[in-house]
Amino acid sequence: MLLNSSPQPKDNQIFASPKKDVEKLAKLFAPQWLEFLTQLECYIRWAAREEYELMTVEKAAAAAEADQNDQVLTVAQAAQLLGLCPQTVYEWAKAEKLQAFKVGRAVRFKRGHVLAALQQQTQPDGRRKYARRATGSPAKPATVVAGAGADS
């Protein structure tokens, strides 16, 4: 038995070898294939360019969001963002409802942690669990003086 016993093409076959096959196909379909391959190459380049641009935009947006969430806030800034008074923000930090850290003696918060706490404290209907209450006395009803403003 021979090691290289691949079947040899017969003389009556149309295509004798792969190289000759390609040459014959190229002669038969050269103009159509060339146009098709050119269009295919243009389409592939366009698709790759679009995908690259989309990935670049997504990467830039993710980086911008990460930078914004890493922003360090003071107690006053966190209170304003949450719509709470600063004392409540201190209490939330002490109760660990809001993740905080210290810079020297000052308490600071990361914007991402504050937004996460805000989302956690929001009810499904959009109302806040711990919304700031209206301060001050309620509006007094206007008193009407009898006979005032009416000409008789």
TrEMBL record:
InterPro entries: DNA-bd_dom_put_sf, HTH_17, SinI_DNA-bd. It comes from the Bacteria. GO terms for molecular function: DNA binding. Residues 72-121 form the Helix-turn-helix domain. Residues 121-152 are annotated as: Disordered. This is Helix-turn-helix domain-containing protein. It comes from Hymenobacter lapidarius.
